[in-house]
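Checked the freezer inventory, then went back to the computational side. Two predictions to log before the end of the day. The first one is the construct we discussed on Monday; recording sequence and tokens without edits.
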Amino acid sequence: MDYKDYYQTLGVAKTATTEQIKKAYRKLARQYHPDVNPNDPDAERKFKEANEAHEVLSDPDKRQKYDQFGADWQRYQQAGAGASGGPGPAGGAGGFDWSQYSQGQGQGDFEGFGGEGADFSDFFGSLFGNMGGPGGAGRSTRPGAGPDYQAELELTLEEAYHGGPRTITVNGRNLRLTIAPGVADGQTIRLRDQGGPGRHGGPNGALLITFRLAPDPRYARTGDDLTQDVPVPLYRALLGGEQTVDTLGGPVKIKIKPETANGTRLRLRGKGFPAYKQAGHGDLYLRLSIELPQHLTDQEKDLLRQLAVLRPEAA
């Protein structure tokens, strides 16, 4: 069987960082996900290939072993491993010492490379499951955890603020979960037993859900603090008064001091974003923007002219 270049599958360089690998995987997973491409065998194949590549390259130990073995794959193939079901012990088929990869532990050394089954190719199974034991004794039958699945869930800022129940579809299954208020963009939660099936009676893998928060034109979020622009009529800014402001937590009345300047910032303690799985909220900062009146009447213009006479330095 042919050597699988996992770096090429994800479209990254061999020097790619873990974050670059994850980013490339997420892009491919979104593009070829079965829910997006129903009844498309080619998309399903590419989705599985991306999963397999990510399974190896996202884990430092697995990646190191893959990189170590990859350079010798051709020699492994020429030694007849693909036909015989696996190389023998040190000094086996082809005269090449494969014990450096099995490390004298038989198949167990390659358990860490993930699960077997429909989600992984024969190359993966042969490379990481059939390497040990005299004459290649076959795949391990020991219980092992199933692979983890990854998914993304898009939320508005308001949905992240309030939390609550949501339904997400993963591999054709609808899962209902309750989101705690205060989740952040890029935050990932782990749901046990909702991933791929375990091997030989082992536990299921986990489902890793990453939250993606859509930008909100009304607010800027910094941690648990929010900043909001609030327009204030000119006359209220000059004379002072009360004003109601709509916030994510509901309407709030604020007091505008007389002669408030444009750009003034007000701090409302505890009116920001809820702290994730903790008591309390961040703060809400209001940035006041003075609104000039439009479409003045003749009477209003006359009054402003009178004011200009009284304030010649402002005319």
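The second is the one RB wanted added to the comparison set:
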Amino acid sequence: MSSGDTLYHRLGGDEQISNIVDEFYERVLADESVAHFFDDVDMAAQRAHQTQFLSAVAGGPVEYDGEEMRAAHEGLGLEPQHFEAIATHLDAALREFDVSDDARDDIMSEVAALEDDVLVR
């Protein structure tokens, strides 16, 4: 794989990743089972962090400087079904933007690897 063929580039770079994140949060905030976790969250900042995170996970020229995953989710009371709902919305947002199956699988594998930290277990 050449450096121009990173997952970041296959996703469409920063602008497209930002669009995917917007779609993702529209889905999350419309889902009553998880929307309440974002009631007191600055969503502009949250979207920026998520765009940065997704870009970094995808191997883009971005370093994620958000809170360490476990610390960021400490005390939220997240359960496995919440993680699953969020992951499902991310997968749906990636599909909405015609992200290839391979690229989607790569991202979802990266996200799945974070489950224990997100659920603080």
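For RB: The mean pLDDT is 90. The CA atoms of residues 14 and 60 lie 8 Å apart. Let me know if you want it refolded.
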